[in-house]
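Tutorial handout. Part one gives the primary structure; part two gives the three-dimensional structure as tokens.
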Amino acid sequence: MAGAQTTARLPDAPQPAQLLRFLSAVPATSQSSGATPSEVPAAEQQTLDPAATMFPHSENAPWWIAGQANIIFQAHPGFHSPYQGPNSFRNAGEYKTSMLGTVFTGYRPHRNMRYNTDFLVDFESAGGRGLSEALGLAGFTNLDVVRNPNLSSVPYLARGEIHQTIGLTNEMAESDRSYLGLATQIPVRRFEFRVGKMSLTDIFDVNDVLTDSHLQFLNWTVDNNGAWDYAADTRGYTVGGAFEYDDRNWSARYGIFAMPVVANGIDLDWAFSRAHGQDWEVELRHSFVPGRKGITRILAYANNAHMGNYREAVQAFLDGVDPTPRITRHEHFGTVKYGFGWNNEQEITGNLRIGSRFGWNDDQEESFAYTEVGQTALLGSDYAGARWKRPSDKAGISFTSNAIKKDHQNYLKYGGLGFLLGDGRLNYARENIEEGYYNWHAWKGLFFALDVQHINNPGYNHDRGPVWVGGVRTHVDF
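Part two.
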């Protein structure tokens, strides 16, 4: 829901790995949340339509086969821009279309749900382009975009993992079958292990309101925590392992994963001793509204990789060593970047939910695997259409504010280029983004959505913008 950066081609950018988190019309309870049906109010249970796919899925078969297709058209008119650089969001009007298709497969070799084992293999194809080749915005407008134009749309392995559950009790809770797990019941207290190729956003920083570009918001820094520079290749996947403990009202997770060789590169560094990303998360299932679902998640991460330092790059420029600031000339093995995140989702009524995030990282080292954000704050909500007799429809609205620290600001101010940003100069201001959408369930697994985004200070530059981006999405679940 992330080779080398050279002037010969556009630098790589992440395809944030949030890929169809839910295969129903309204996002269901996460497999890893440990929530039981009693925690979901009856009004919401009625909107969880398991038939919202083109073809029915068996609840008893040892195998799982599903798929999705997501097509997003976006456009923006011309906007105010007295200057622009090689990595700017283009001020002339433009339009682009992206296409993403995924086939999800899974197999359970036995029926012991207390000690369930899943073999999960997913294939994906990504095509089309993003506006301005996905440059010029920290919070880019389309989560499905893979910005590196040199990557073809040939299908690739997205996930290939083993998921093992070890139950610590015979007490079971209901669970929805999905591409993340095939069991229909899971132990209330359990260990879960995942190893293989995966996306970190399948496991960490999940938020039912702010998480799915296929049925909800589209912006990178709405669907994921923009300050979480999570380990990933250009397409948003990595290799590693995750361990999780789930109890009745809380969970704890840890994972270690491979980092890319260069910032947002497609190749991973397989030497975990010199490059890796580590993530920790605690999840507390506690509601601030009696009788309603509420979850708070606290995230921490530390990345160790061959990363550059913004202050060193700026100082080398000021000393006349470099003609322009170039962070790739100041990379060191053993560099550590760290950060924290806070995530909350709260149900207010049977139809209304609120989600929020806050993220921070030290922002001294180069943005390496997701986007150029040092701090982010987000508030959003969605409303199901049960009151107008369309329970599988949904409307949402959000506000996001992104920022970077002084050394990062100076790097861009003096003409440095990141993997996303670089107007040639910078009159700094926070990048603020408002987004709204309406998702219409047309028939079975077919959905259409209208989306609009308003971006103030694109790329943190007060001299440019604001810009309006409109979008239309077609989504099919198979």
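Part three, for discussion. The chain has one domain: 37-477. The radius of gyration is 21 Å.
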